[in-house]
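Branched-chain amino acid transport system permease protein: structure, please.
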Amino acid sequence: MSRLGLGLFVLWVLLLATTPLHADNYIVRTAIMIAMYSSLALSWNFIGGYTGYPSFATVAFFGVGCYVGGIAQRNGVPMFLAWTLATIVVAAFAAALGAIILRLKGHYFAIGSIAVVEVCRLVISSWRSVTGGGDGLNIPLLRWSPDEVAIFYLMVMIGIMLITFALNVFVDRHRLGFGLHCIRQNEDAANMVGINTTLYKVVAFTLSAMFCGTTGAVYASWVGYIDPTDAFSILMTVKVPVMVLLGGPGTVLGPVLGAGTFVILEEIFWANFLDWNRAVLGGIIVFLIFFLPGGLLKVSYRKVVNRLRGAEGVRS
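Here you go.
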């Protein structure tokens, strides 16, 4: 990552963190959502970006984190300890699941990861005595003013985003990142040159899950109510990979750029095209597949500017 990229990221974080000083509650809520989705996208980048495995299990880890954190808080566990517990439980769940599901490849792995989401949702929905089933769970709220609560959760979400960003930088420059890139290029060849592909994939899958669990637990505390439909939303299953593909998979800044762009576009379309916002999401996916296979970071903006200047010269 260049110094320019790092500088732009720092400015972006400062802009998000200072929204309570110069914007209304709607903008602050949007900033919280951007930070939350940036954390989820940065987490997905470990398995989908660096390793090239198309996982759709992100929302399963997010939902499990919601319920572990929520149930712990309802049973008297302090909030920060509940978030930590959710992180540990989700990481252990992902490590055990990864040892099984990562034996699949390509489309089979993608379908298997979608099945994980449905299995988790059905278990939570059926375990009514603990999870509340379809009626959902109420989570204890902070007894602060609305502005103080918004600022607190904004800072927490930004903190999680910074941790996942730092972890991406570390992995990108570490031997683990090199091994994951090799697996994405050719897994059989990586195995032949001595890379323990099974171990590397399980580590990447675990890293892609653990902070989703943290984010889910924080989200549950923020909204104060969770149910299986919201916690295991099939739309979020698609959103997070699309955000990474929009920004640039396998890069450090791509997930942050993609998450910010997607959330802002989504808010604009929700406000102006209420009946067509899902169609817009489908349009973005089709556009990515055909015109931006490397994401926004791979676009040669210098060529775009030169072409625009050339077009203006011809007109004049």
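Notes: The mean pLDDT is 87.
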